[in-house]
Write a structure and sequence with these properties.
The complex is a heterodimer. Chain A is mostly beta strands. Helix content of chain A is about 0%, strand content about 55%. In chain B, the strands form 2 sheets. In chain B, strands 2, 4, 5, 6, 9, 10 and 11 form a 7-stranded mixed β-sheet that branches. A 4-stranded antiparallel β-sheet of chain B has the order 1-3-8-7, with no helix packed on it. The chains are: A mainly beta, B mainly beta.
Chain lengths: ~110, ~120
C-alpha cells in the first residue's frame, strides 16, 4: 500500500522552462513533507521541505506547494537547468510517530537543452 | 566530514549465499536508517536505530533479513540466505536527534545483485 505516490515516473522539460513534479499522499497523519534529489550512483540528498501548517515554501529556484485538503504537493523548479536532471523523491513524515520517512517511487526529470 | 560511508558499493552473489552490507554513519548522528530502493516500490524503510537500539523493524521483509548496530559508528544489514528478489540498491542514512526538521543524510548505496 503506497501511502506516498508519484504517478509520473518521468518528466521531460526544456531548459529555462518550469518543471512541476507532483506527489499525492493518503495518510492524513502526515504533517511534514520533503523532497529529495538523487543523481545516478549517489544517495538521495535533501532539497526542500514544508510543514503542514504552511501551503508554500520557497528556496531559490525551488518552491514546494502543499494542498492539504487534496492531500497533494508539488515541486516547482524555475527556471529548469540541465543540472536539475535527476530522480526526485517525495517523502512524508508523521512527526508524532517517530523519525520515519515514507517515500514515493520517484520521478525522473530530464532537462533538455 | 566524510558523510555516510557504505561498503561494498557493489555486491554480486549467488542465491543462497549470505550477504553483509556495512554502514558508518556521520559522527554525532544518533539515528541510523536502512532503506531498499526498487523500481516498483521506490525507497522503502527497512529498519531504523536510535542510539544503537532498533526502534522500528516493521519494514524488514522476512526473517532472512537482520540488522545490528554494535556501536555508534557501525551498522550491518545481513541477508541469509539471499534470493534473486533481494536484488536492489540498499541505502544507509543517518540524522541527529530531535525534531522533524532534521535531514537524513544518505550514503552512496550498495547495489546488490543475487543471481
Amino acid at each position: 500500500d503506497q501511502q506516498v505516490k508519484q504517478n509520473s515516473p518521468s518528466l521531460s522539460v526544456q531548459e529555462g522552462r518550469i518543471s512541476i513534479l507532483n506527489c499525492d499522499y493518503t495518510n492524513s497523519m502526515f504533517d511534514y513533507f520533503l523532497w529529495y534529489k538523487k543523481y545516478p550512483a549517489e544517495g538521495p540528498t535533501f532539497l526542500i521541505s514544508i510543514s503542514s501548517i504552511k501551503d508554500k515554501n520557497e528556496d531559490g529556484r525551488f518552491t514546494v506547494f502543499l494542498n492539504k485538503s487534496a492531500k497533494h504537493l508539488s515541486l516547482h523548479i524555475v527556471p529548469s537547468q540541465p543540472g536539475d536532471s535527476a530522480v526526485y523523491f517525495c517523502a512524508a513524515i508523521h512527526t508524532g510517530g517517530g523519525n520515519k520517512l515514507t517515500f514515493g517511487t520517484g520521478t525522473q526529470l530530464k532537462v533538455e537543452l | 566530514d566524510a558523510g555516510v560511508i557504505q561498503s561494498p558499493r557493489h555486491e554480486v552473489t549467488e542465491m543462497g549465499q549470505e550477504v553483509t552490507l556495512r554502514c558508518k554513519p556521520i559522527s554525532g548522528h544518533d539515528y541510523l536508517f536502512w532503506y531498499r530502493q526498487t523500481m516498483m516500490r521506490g525507497l522503502e524503510l527497512l529498519i531504523y536505530f536510535n542510539n544503537n537500539v532498533p526502534i522500528d523493524d516493521s519494514g524488514m521483509p522476512e526473517d532472512r533479513f537482520s540488522a545490528k548496530m554494535p556501536n555508534a559508528s557501525f551498522s550491518t544489514l545481513k541477508i541469509q540466505p539471499s534470493e534473486p528478489r533481494d536484488s536492489a540498491v540498499y541505502f544507509c542514512a543517518s540524522s541527529r536527534t530531535s525534531g522533524r526538521t532534521d535531514t537524513q543524510y544518505f550514503g552512496p548505496g550498495t547495489r546488490l545483485t543475487v543471481l
